[in-house]
Design a protein that fits this description.
With 76 residues, this protein is an alpha+beta fold. It has a single domain, classed as Macrophage Migration Inhibitory Factor (2-Layer Sandwich), CATH 3.30.429.10. It contains two helices and four strands; from the N terminus they run βαβββα. The longest helix is centred in the middle third of the chain and has 19 residues. It comes from Trinickia violacea. GO terms for molecular function: isomerase activity.
Length: 76
């Protein structure tokens, strides 16, 4: 019984959204479940997928808050 946790920053991927959409979450769940089936022969019905959305101010990257890291990376 595999359990997969996916952590993403809470921000929209489409204009007007501020989080991952239900459709995007459904695609992630399906894709991860099928990947485990195809690679490890784990049954889809026995796979659990948890999606955690983390506020951007709680996400660090390269020693910086994610927004600051992205700004600096864009300048390079």
């Amino acid at each position: 019984m595999p359990i997969v946790t996916i952590q993403v920053t809470r921000e929209g991927t489409q204009p007007g959204t501020d989080s991952v959409t239900a459709d995007e979450k459904a695609q992630l769940i399906k894709g991860v479940s099928h990947l485990l089936r195809d690679v490890l022969n784990k049954p889809v019905e026995a796979t659990f997928v948890v999606i955690e959305e983390v506020e951007k101010e709680n996400w660090g990257w390269g020693g910086l808050p994610v927004d600051e890291y992205r700004k600096q990376r864009a300048l390079k």
